[in-house]
Structure formats: structure tokens, C-alpha cells
Amino acid sequence: MMGSSQGHLADWYVLAKYRQHTQFILIPDNDEAGKKYIGVVAKEIQKACPKAELLVCELPSNRKGEDFIDWIKSTHTCLKEWDEFDPISETYKKALKANFEDYVEKNQISIEDFLSQKDLKPDFLLDPLSIEEVLLPVLSCPIQTFPRVVIDWIESLADQMQIPTDYLAAPFIVYVGSLIGRKRCLKLRKGTDWIEFSNLWGMLVGRPSVMKSPAMKAVRKPLLLLVENASKLYEQATKQFEQDQEVWKLKKKVSEENFKKQFKIVLAKPSSSSPILNVEGPPNQPKKKRYKSEDPTVEKLGELLIENPQGLLLFRDEIAGWLNSFEKTGRENDRQFFLESWSGKEEFEVDRISRGSLRIPALCLSIFGSIQPGPLSQYVRSAIKGGYGDDGFIQRFQVIVWPDTKDHWELIENCQMEQIEEDVNQIFYFLDQLAFDQQDKPVILHFDTLAQKAFNEWQKEFENFLRKDLLPSYLESHFAKYKKLLPALCLVLEHLRHAINKECPIEVSEDTLTDALLWIDYFGSHAKRLYGSITNAIPKAAKELIQKIKNGIIQEPFSVRDIYHGHHWSGLANSQDVEEVLEYLIEKNYLIGTLSKTTGRPSYKYWVNPKIFEIV
User: Fold this and answer.
1) What DSSP line would sit under 118-136, residue for residue?
2) HSE (CB half, 13 Å, CA atoms) of 14?
3) Which residues have CB under 8 Å from 351's CB, separation 6+?
4) Nearest Cα to 432, choosing from 178, 173, 102?
5) Which of 107, 203, 303, 383 is most buried (most C-beta within 10 Å)?
6) Residue 243 pLDDT > 80
């Protein structure tokens, strides 16, 4: 034949030899010219074969201009190395034919319906409305509850880096909580077994380039000094161990030689008493004290926790990759391990054929990292809709902050921080020296009388609020875990107050509880922003889809399947997500959906408001 723009020049007499056929199936190319060309072909077939039935089937295509050959190459029934000219083997030909016939059977329409729906693009009477993403307001960071030296340190860092204090205060709380770990716990009510530890999970939320990673690293410096000091002590202990081991080997050799001599005497004189081999036990191999890990397997993490019963900090700069790693083959059970580690109270047993059994007396992990709003909103949206992650995992991240970033930048010079940093380092050093009790168990703190009364009143009001069914289930699940967050904050704040004077607290005061409740309100506002952001997932995906339409990647009219099939676009990965986005765009006057008739199930085709191309 001829190209689609020169159909009138084609030699159509060749169709005469197909006059006995009663049905023709026409496959248009995926562009406007190809679809118009179908009309030319149909007219010529009707002239040559007036009794034949003409059907049209549009094959699923991902790119403008693709044709039948492209569709063949995209199917699993075609070899990747096929050059588009060589004959296809009989084996693949049969599978391809069956695949093609099945698709045509479900998606064919008459030539009349095809031409009518091409000609009748709906009229758009309204202009497209703006697509906006909205964030709920959040409370300001209550750093006034920290000791003065910590406030000065955080504010100086925030000025230097031109970032919100939230990005520094949140990781600081988690780092301090990890340092206290299982060495201290708070009993919430006397006469019960209800205790909580200070380990917490948290993350910073913000778009790229808002200094999330530098902020986390800046307040991690005091902890890294402890890591460096522990490494030096370990190196010294290792050298001493190696010397002691050599001495032990020599002593053992001498003892064994003396034993052999005495044993020979016994053999010569049976009446002699039997010798005794006196060999001291080998020296104990030193263990390196660990504070953190960044990318461990759960098996290795279990070994580290056995050696470091106070607990560890798991630090992930970009936490989205870590969350997605649980879906990888072979790591399906890792999620349960981390779920168990949140409370800091549960023991855990790992059984592996290759590594044997491992018993961890108490899983206690603090976790901190950063994430961008898009991936986080998608993850939360999946959890809320009952998809992957609907197990309370995201609700365990209680120390989540998503602050408003500064709208201007200024240079701050000559910040004198040496003495402030040293004072903060001394706080970390003192907290590191905290120890278990004489039985190697956690030291238990209690509320003082006034604090206990205030806590009881708070809990009563809090529990009744949760039972009123005023919150969505996912937000209720998040807030319900504040019964862990509040005592953890109390432990952190109380120890910070006493660490200034190098003192160990024995109880939690009412003032500390009051300050902790300020943080509860603060983190609650950020939680509402987090879960409210799931409504932004649809506008965000809608913006990206409109841009792809403008770029010609998606051609109208298109179906739901045309959007999600083979693309893997964020927020548009499956039919349900796509339908939600398309409905949103219809409400915003960007699209109109029309019912397309086929011999199979009716389906909707979507048309684009031409005015979107005028929007910058």
C-alpha cells in the first residue's frame, strides 16, 4: 500500500482477490494520521468487498506512532532478537496468533462506531481549574524545653545552616533516647508491669536540597565522638588481648610439658599419684561497644544487640529505600523483626539452617532517617488503603517532623560554638556512662506524686478521646502509640536536665511531664500533616499525567490501561490509582470520559481539554 498521507495513490485492486472474505479486522497505528488512514482503508475494502464486515481494534501502545509490528515485539510471544523481517517460528507464531485473537475478541468495535467516536470529540465548555497541593499547619518546635546549652547549640546550628530547628531537635531526641536505651525505664504506674524505654523511631520529611541530611549529621557529632572513642578503646583492648593470648599460649605449653613429664613418672611408678594439668582459661576476647548501624542484615543486627544490650541506633540517610527493601525476595521476614524491636521490651529468636539459632534477650532499636514527601505519601497511602504496609509499621514513627522551610536565606558568620559543642559532648559522654543495676537489669524510674496524678488525668482524657471514634482508623492507630512516646520523651527530657549537673535522675517530675506533653502536641500536628498529605498524592500524580499528555507520551483518546500498563509511573501504578486520578482531572475540567462500545465489556475513553496546552 502507501503511507497514511498518500492513501489515495495506493493500488487497491489487490483487494479483489479477498472478495470471498466476510470479515476484516483493521489495526490503526497509534497516532492521528494512522487512525484517519483507517477510514480510507475501510472505504476501499467496502468497494472491493461490499458484503464484508469491518471491525477495528486499537492495540495497547505506550508511545505515539507505534504500530502492529511494535505490538508484536512488545509481547512475551516474540523473541527479543527478532529483526521485524525474518519469519516468526511456528511455535511463537501460534502463541502470537492466540494472543492477538484473544485481545481482538475483547476489544473490537465496528468501523462505524470507531469513526463516529473519532469524529465526536466532546466539547469542553469550562477552563481547567488549578491543581493545588495543600499541607495542614504544624506547631512550632518547643526547643525551650531543652537545657539552655542545648537550645543555644541547636539555634546556632539552625542559623548557620538556615534551616528550621525542627530538623535538628527531632534527631537529637532520638539520638539521646538511643544512648539511654534499656539502661533506664519508666514505670507508668506502681503495682503494674507497665514500663517503657526511651528508644524512638523518627524521620525528617522534606523535598530535596532542604538540608535534611546535613541536619541529621550535625547533631550526630557528639554520638560519633563516642563511636570514635569506643573504636580507640577497642584497638587498645585488642592489642592487650593479643599479648595476653601469647602469654597464655606459652603458659599452657609449659604446663602441658610438665604434665607429660609427671605422667611419664606415674607410668614408671604406678603407685605414684596422678598428675593434674593446671591450665588457666584463655583471656576473654574484647568486644567493641557499638552505638549505631546503617545497613545490617537482621542476623548481624541480632548479634550486635546481644553484645550491646542497651540497644542500638539504626541510621538511614534515605529511609525510603529501607522501607522498600522489605519487599525484596529473601527479606520478607525482616519486617517482623523490626516491628518487634520498637517497644524495646521483646525478646526474639532467629533460627537459620546456615547460622543456627540466635536468642536476643531484648530487641531495642532506635531508628532515624529522612525521606521526601512523594515517596512517603505513596507509602502512607498504600498503608491506609490496606495495601503493603498496613500493619502499623509507619505509625511506629512517632518522631516525624515535616516543617515549613525558610522562604529566605541569609549568611550568618562568626558563630562561636566551640564551648557550646563541648558542653553538649559532655552531656552525651555522661549519658553513655549510665549503667544497668547490679543484676544487669534496667534501672526503674517512677513519676513523682504530682507527675503521677497529672499522668493519670492525661491518660483518662486521652483514652476516652480515642474511644469516641472521632479519628480515621490510621490516625487513631498512630495516636494510640503515644502511650509509648510520652514516657520516652519524659525519660529523655529528665535525663537531659540532670546530665547538665552530672546527676542521675531517680524520678520524673511534673515539670518534665508538662514539657513532654508540649512535644506530644507538636508531634501530633506533624502527624496530621503527614496523613493529610495522602490527599496530595492524587493532585501530584495528576500534574505528572498532564505533563506526559503535553509531551505527547499519552495520546487521546486513552483508556485507564493505557496509563498504567508498562509505565510504572509514581501514583499511577495500577487501575485503581489511575481511575482516582482521572476522576480528579474530570472534576478539574482537564478531561472528559466517554463510554466506548466494544463487542466485549464497555470501557471509557478519555479526552483532553485543548486549553491545557495553554497552561504554562
Assistant:
1) HH-PPP--SPPPP------
2) 6
3) 357, 358
4) 178
5) 203
6) yes
**Is the torsion defined by CA of 489, 494, 500, 504 positive or negative?**
negative
Measured between alpha carbons, how far is 213 from 198 in angstroms, rounded to an integer? Answer: 23
Contacts of 429 (CB under 8 A, 6+ apart): 225, 226
| SS3 sequence of 446-475 | EECHHHHHHHHHHHHHHHHHHCCCCCCHHH
pLDDT of amino acid 1: 42
List, in sequence order, the alpha helices (H) in 50-110: 68-74, 90-107
Q: Which of 565, 564, 599 is nearest to 107 (CA)?
A: 599
Residues contacting residue 243 through CB under 8 Å, at least 6 positions apart: none
The cell numbers describing 107, all together, are 476489544
Beta bridge partners of 200: none
Upper half-sphere CA count for residue 578 (Cβ side, 13 Å) = 19
Cis peptide bond prior to 270, omega within 30° of 0: no
C-beta atoms surrounding 567 within 10 Å:
15
Kindly state the DSSP code that residue 26 receives in the 8-state scheme. E
Question: Is the per-residue pLDDT at 409 higher than 50?
Answer: yes
* Structural element, H or E, at residue 507: strand 507-508
- Phi, psi (degrees; rounded to nearest 5) at 438: -65, -20
How is residue 279 annotated by DSSP? -
Which three three-digit cell numbers place residue 530?
A: 503527614
Contacts of 289 (CB under 8 A, 6+ apart): 230, 233, 234, 308
The whole-number average pLDDT for the span 180-192 is 95
Q: How many whole angstroms separate alpha carbon 377 and alpha carbon 383?
A: 10
Per residue in 104-157, pLDDT tens? 888 888 887 777 665 467 788 889 999 888 889 999 999 999 999 999 999 999
Amino acid at 400: I
State how far the Cα of 197 lies from the Cα of 180, in Å rounded to an integer. Answer: 9
Find, among 185, 236, 279, the residue nearest to 490 by Cα: 185
Separation of alpha carbons 582 and 603, rounded Å: 14
Query: Mean of the pLDDT values across residues 263-276?
Result: 74
Q: pTM for this structure?
A: 0.74
Cell digits of residue 74:
512488545
pLDDT at site 76: 62
Question: Per-residue pLDDT tens for 448-461?
Answer: 999 999 999 999 99
Q: Tell me, what's the pLDDT at 448?
A: 97
How many residues belong to the chain?
Answer: 616
Angle 429-434-436 (CA atoms, 0-180°, nearest 5)?
A: 155
Amino acid at 415: C
Extract the C-alpha cell encoding 495.
535525663
DSSP 150-208: HHHHHHHHHHHHT--THHHHHHHHHHHHHHHGGGEEEESSTTS--EE-S--EEEEE--T
* Per-residue pLDDT tens over the stretch 566-609: 888 878 888 888 998 999 999 999 999 887 665 556 678 899 99
> In whole angstroms, how large is the CA radius of gyration of the chain?
35
Strands 603-608, 591-596: pairing is: antiparallel
Q: C-alpha angle with apex 177: 172 to 183, nearest 5 degrees?
A: 150
Helix pair 510-532, 373-384: axis angle to 10 deg: 90
